[in-house]
Amino acid sequence: MRIEHGDDGALVFGYLDTVATAGNRASDAVLVRAEGSGRARSYRLGEVGACEISGDHGMSVVSRVSPAARYRGHALGLLMDGRGALEQDGRRASLAPGDFVLYSGERPFRLHLGAHHRYLLLGLPEHSVPPECAGRITADPELSRLPSGRILTAMLTETTRLADRLGPVARWEMGEHVTAVLRTLIRESGHGGTAPDYRAALLDRVLDHIDRHLGEELSPESIAAAHHVSVRSLHALFRSQGETVNGYVRGRRLDRVRRDLAAPDLMRLPVYAVAARWGIRDASHLSRLFRARFGVSPRRFRQQALEADPAPARDGGAGRDRAGGSALRQNG
After folding, report:
1. How far apart (Å, rounded) are the C-alpha atoms in residues 223 and 220?
2. Chain centre distance of CA 111
3. Is residue 134 classed as helix, strand or coil in its secondary structure?
4. Given the DSSP bridges, would you call strands 91-95 and 100-104 parallel, antiparallel or unpaired?
5. Can you tell me the distance from the alpha carbon of 305 to that of 303, in angstroms, rounded to the nearest whole number?
6. Residue partners of 56: CB distance under 8 A and separation at least 6
7. pLDDT single digits (tens) 207-237
């Protein structure tokens, strides 16, 4: 982490983007104005960078995006204690304990935290938020009030409390769980309301069927026949959830491949063999699909997963100086 002190506050680079080789390449640069010292703790949950910030005095954080920054994802901020507010894209979300917001470091934002605050900041992988949804979810306080939003809050609260006791594989898998629930939340936020009971029950059975047969041939026709419904009805069922049948099957297969590529006990299994286990048998097709969904090739992803530092990183004390609130730096 690099800190530059000035008259208007502390300019902080790279609190979450710790792999940035130079300060101006960090994706999470912010200007921090704090009334007192703060404390910070950082660690990783697989692809998800995490930073816990706490302080007894108020602080204000303003984004400072560098054109050299490589990352183009979103941040999730969960307020665990105190009061706060975040402003972005013309919206302002007031935060109470248990509330969270999504925001982007690519665009201007302001984050305010009051006295006696405790704040969890997550730097999310780029694939976590579909590009078409990015504009409507920033600074939306209603996300944390949806059912899947409450589940996500509970998961993050417990994960934060127990992070030091998680092993390397468990931390990686928890990061995947977090991004999976987030995708569910974003889909739920764009398709409010619930399906009638009979449709919900049918969808539950269909999704279970898909998961149990991912390694086999799956088509809308075979899935519909297995549940005695028409193909048209099956497509309508998925469309009501903002999904397509083939898109959902493909996504589930890619998620399973990604999970297995990160498993140390499967590292000797070739990439093509891992993919074949989940019904993707064309290596070039796998590479295109995987890169489109996760932004990296399967081989590169496996290398990154296996090279990941297994130990949670600790703030080396910089989070305790005048820029301790610098911990607030947004992952952009």
Report:
1. 5
2. 19
3. helix
4. unpaired
5. 5
6. 36, 115, 116
7. 999 999 999 989 999 999 999 889 999 999 8
